[in-house]
Amino acid sequence: GFLDHDSWITVELQHSLSATSDSFTFRGNVTIPSLNSGLANVVQPPLTDEELQQLKTLAKQNDFYRLKTTVVYSNGAKSTFLTSNKACRLLLAQLKDVLWISLDPSGFVTAITASQDAPPGTFECTPEDIDKLDETLFSTDVLIRHAELAPVPDTASFIQKVEREREARERGDVRDNRGFFAKYWMYIVPVVLLVFISGATNQEGAK
Amino acid sequence: RALNLGKLKQAYVDLNHLQPRILLSTEEGVVASVCVKTGNLMWRQVLEQKPRGDIKLLQVSGFFDENRETAAAPIGSNLGFDTLTVQGHAPALVRGWNSNLGAIEWEWSTMPLNSEQAQNALWFYSRSVLYHVVPVWRSHLEVTAYFASSGHSTGSSSKVIASWINPETCLLSGTYYVCLDFPGNQLISLDLLSKSGQVIRTPLQRLPQGKLEALPGLSGVVLSNGNLISVNKDIPVCGSLQSASYAIGSFNYRKILVYADLKTNILKINAVYLDNCSPVVELAQSVPLPDHFGTPSLSSFDCVQKKIGDGKGCLFLFSTTAESIIAVQNGRVRWSREESLANIVDSQFVDLPLADSEGTLENEINGKAGDIASAFLRRIITQAAQIRSLFLHVIGLGPPPSATQRAGLVRDSFGLHKMLVLLTQTGKIFGIDNISGKHHWQLYLPNVRGFDNKEQMRLIVQRSAKHFPLQPLCTILGKDSDTDNGVLFRFNPITGQASEGGLILLDYKVKQFSLLKETERDFVKGILLLDASNRVHVYPQHASPLADGMYLYTAGMKTAELSGYFVKYAGGKLSSKHIWNARLGGHNSEQQIVGVAGKNPIEHVHSQGRVLVDRSVLYKYINPNLVAFVTQAPDATHKSLLNLYLVDVVSGSVIFTMTHRKVRAPLHIVHSENWLAYSYFNEKVRRTEITTIELYEGKVQANSSVFSSLQAPPMPLVERQSYIIPSLVEVLRETITERGITNKHVLIGTASGSIVEMPWHLLDPRRPIASTTQGREEGAVPYIPELPLPTDSYINYNQTIARLRNIFTAPSGLESTCLVVATGLDLFVTRVAPSKTFDLLKEDFDYILISIVLVALTSGSLIVKHLASRKLLKQAWK
Questions:
Q1: Across the interface, do A115 and B651 touch by the CB < 8 Å criterion?
Q2: pTM value?
Q3: Complex ipTM > 0.85
Q4: Which of A34, B106, B503, B790 qualifies as a FRET site for A164, CA 20 to 30 Å off?
């Protein structure tokens, strides 16, 4: 499912590193020149030490890391989206995340979600583990989910199939040239066997 | 199956006909006749869906006509019709009915020139001519006359200039068109049949509080503030009377006016002679009326005509605010019909309580077990008590069984016998036995209504009957009709009594709700409510700690915006945090949500995967937080678009998007396990189609024990297919069983009122087009675009359900069996066994044969053993 009219969008990323306030600070910019090709340019400055510390406190409280994204379309229209994930998962994934951009059939964004692929086994979020991490550079992959076209009842191929089967049957009906025994041996053999067996037992009885 | 009619609109009681009868029309577009003595249905005709089937007028010949005074008992045949109805506006259909059989006798229709104005059209009947009145607000009235039985126009339509008419305060009373003139305290009226067209102005003593009401039977009489006001100089009214409802009729060959009022559960009926306003003492009576009927209003009455009647032959027909029909005769309620059951909004199957003896046993098991000795002692004590009660019972001295026991409301061993709790649109609640259909109790909540944007009231089971000493508890979540604030009503679903607080008025508007886990203390599932200002509340409050870590979502129908919230409980306070949002509305929010389908929270998924041909397993993508949203919008190139979104409502990520072109509502979705099926109307080829989707994780499972939306597998595999269904789909529902081992079937309710049980393997999107060995090995049926609807899979046989609206399913105690209730105008309760009754013996199972065989074998083996020992003994002696 690709769009009829390709267009570009830019996405501004802002994140909130505090559990209590609703203030968002700048994280980076994503430019997608073509929605159909799905290639994206991501520009993200590294986190400052203060921001990293804030993120760590957030993780220790097992709170949400919230990401606000503002999409600007080619015609200048804007819309904002919000997504959240556990802060400790982001830290454990070494600030690697995947930005999923879901599109509707006419090319407008329906949702932007960030997900992290945490290394397996390190699900626990202990303060010691968090303190060991000091990655400050985000590395973000952008993936686009296009809307797909729904299937329609597939009558054409079904009719074709029926036609094919009919032809096959017609061809099959031409003639079965095998002999009588060749065709029905599987019915004859048991009958013959039965006759033999009963004959044998009768003979025994006659004796 | 129970047949219902709907809310009463017009009724005629006719006791003086050759065959006494009651004819009525209802808001649901039903014309029916009921038996005078019992209230049973004689016949019923369900007309077309609204607006086509909206009944504008029901006219029974001889009623409220001028012939009435001359003929003693009018027989309709000389008028050319018996009963006629006018329905719809574009076109307006006039139908004549045979009132004895309910057969349609003739029909004609008229198409108005301007169908928009005709929406407000009114009809009245006078002297075998039917008049069609089309008001054009603030301008004029168009009156067209037709011969009632033929439909021929009597002449050109006349236009009456009337700039004073407006949509708010006008009505038709007999042949008079009456309006309230706003600033001036007066009624302006016009006799539509008079040649002069003179406007009559009648001053009013007081401004009417509510709407004006017409009094059927008296032309030009309106009801205002409980007083009667006549705008017609020829008709006198008793203006000093004060009552809520009036009706006109005759008694002892004199015209009388009957009025009835409800005062503290006593219904008082009084009557006066219309000519001199002196009271008719024979008819004065008072009837005690239970609460659950609501407020009655008199709709019709009739008396058996005798020279000197004593008033005992009079039957008064009431319709109530709880949508019941009550017939009162001779100072008592003769019969009543519960017509609110024609509009059921929610339903639950509730387990019945245990029998008393089992209950004590359960109690003992539940008791916190101490050491072995005390448990043993308790066991002995309870068993001794049981023996004692059994003994007392036998000699007839035991304690009387409790009320529920007497009513036979005891759980059976298979859990098939349940209490069906039905919530209706008017706020009336019923407790119905699902096997006998008996109404065990009924309750009426007068001021509770459904929410805006078509969200209905909800019926929630907070505590099931499993926790024995505690009674089960149900809650209704609704809206107060005056303040729009939320309302909770808690009651015991077995007895129908309010419990644990009863009616609770909340001081906020409810936006979303969710159920919490069971509390330790009293096993109540708390209700988590999100109010209009995004604050969260938990009811009951002691369940608040369980709300910590809950996720909630809201969806705006019009804007198609979704928002997700996280609920946190810290320091004794609940707070919510907005964590995600999504916009399904497109660029200008032209998309509107037409369908939302989550999964049934009590569902269990037994099988985690599907075995493929190569003996590998394709794991199902089972995400309990997945919700399907369907939006619809007009589109320039494709006429109309239907988009399906699968959204994880915890993380807010849109898992899958699919779009249909040239497709529109009506849309019905069913969402269960890892699959989704929805039906829609294809405009291009004009047929109904069903699309099915299955989601698979793939050959490996990310986390087999717990599913977490925050670390979900990124993208499931999506299998999809579309099918043609040769019928109009009204409702879809999946079957559900106790443990989810039984195959899932989809119940398809069709517009013709039948329910088809469709096995999932016919809807399976993995049905292969070419019949390969691979598909056959997997057990998939080859693809055929049209779904078969074999008549032997109709679970309601010939018992069609008129206006089928919804199907509810519930598991029974047996794994194989699922309880089904289908609601519409009628109510139909049954049970289905999707994988056949594998855990039950067949009905024709030969118990005698198997016991004979068993006895014979046992005795045979004993005899043979005996013989063998004798033989051995004999051999030893040789």
A1: yes
A2: 0.81
A3: no
A4: B790
